Amino acid sequence: MSESLTLGDRLRVARRTRKLSAAQLATKVAISPSYVQKLESGARKATPSLVAALANALHFGPEVLTGQPYYGEPEAEDAVHAVIPELRRLLLCYDTPDELEIAPRPLPVLASEVDQVAALRRDARYAPMGPLLPPIIAELTHVALSAHDDRDQRQAFWHLARAYRAVNSLAHKMGHHDLSNTALERVRWAANESGDPLLQITAGYLVAGAMLRQGAYAPARRKLLALRAELERMQPESSFTDDALAVDGALLLKLAVIAARQNNPDGASAYLREAEEVAQMAGNRDSLAHEMSFGPTNIRIHGIHALIDMGDADQALARLAEWAPSGGTEWTPPATTVGERSSHHHIDVASAKLTLGDRAGAFKELRRARKIAPNHTRFHPSVRETTSALLRLETHPSNELSAFGNWAGITTP
Asked: Of 289, 372, 366, whose CA–CA distance to 333 is shortest?
């Protein structure tokens, strides 16, 4: 079933539900009444920070405005939703699980499957990842709770935390935010039981990310700064391991995003520069140490994201042109970049190009994102809004654009 409502439509309904005028809502989020009207008509596209601010002002979750979770065709991707009830049950019964019909597989076998799940998560391949999660979590839970050897138990909890992280990512990207938050608590629990301090900091990093998505910028910033202080306490700078550097770099990039959401360009730039210094300490190479995607590529992606988030699409695209390789017109992430990061970059750039009136360029970026990570692209709220705007702006949308809209679950006007 296609979805014809836009964020602007949902904003209008939510505003009226709260019995607010456009002027009253505008005052609450420090924008003009005409801007609210343009958002509701679809003439302007809301940034993630503005979506969070509007949702907070209206006392709704952001998903009320974005319309998540999205259902409908194609069937292969919607099958991901089918595992959600079972995952909810498993996470609810995390410390008192159902009995297994057969004994769990050996821990090395389960660890290998978690490695596969982690690779699928990084590439945003949620459709093949989803069905793998319930049996892995069920078996790892039993191994972790019944292991007699302390080392085996810690290892089981370590891999269980990684599996819960995949549930968090799946649930968040698919719009099941209640399950995403539950998964975060399970990541923290399993990380603590694993005894791995870096995994515990990673769990806190994920919680800060959830705070950011809800518009709780100050608490998220405080949490990230506390995590950096804890990391420094554990591993003084002179002895940081590569894994610790990757985790520290990820914390800095999240702090840069928060600064951008708070419209603090100087703060965002400072955190990005510090992240570059950390990357240099780690050999200036892209890595996946401790499952943190960090390095020069991810720093550039976050730099562009920060500019777009602050409404500076011109500067973002100028930066991409400045970084263009010889003979190219703009920089794009290398093919080796994890799919979730790379597709997110193209989704951001599509929004920036649409803002500057480059409809063809915006659609090209959406197609790039789809090619890299179709599951992530189809269920991303920004893709829906950009596609809806393109369909509305084109008097006679091309067959390709109309087909893309149908694939994304959007009715052609």
From this structure: 372
N-to-C CA span, the chain? 15
Please provide the average confidence, as pLDDT, over all residues in the chain: 90
Q: Please, are residues 356 and 317 in contact by the beta-carbon 8 Å criterion? A: yes
State both tokens at 242: 């590569």
Tokens at 240, concatenated? 């940081």
pLDDT digits (tens, 9 = 90+) for 224-250: 999 999 999 987 666 788 899 999 999
Domain boundaries, the chain: 7-66, 82-195, 199-310, 315-413
| Residue 5: φ, ψ to 5° | -75, 140
Buried b (16+ CB within 10 A) or exposed e, 27-38: eebebeeebbbb
Round to whole Å and give the CA distance between 134 and 143: 14
Task: State the amino acid at position 24 in one-letter form.
Answer: Q
> How much is the pTM?
0.86
Are the beta carbons of 271 and 253 closer than 8 angstroms? yes
| Topology annotation, domain 7-66 | 434 Repressor (Amino-terminal Domain) (1.10.260)
Q: If we measure between CA atoms, which residue out of 344, 276, 357, 343 comes closest to residue 314?
A: 357
Q: Helices in 59-149 by DSSP H: which ranges?
A: 62-66, 75-78, 84-92, 107-122, 126-129, 133-146
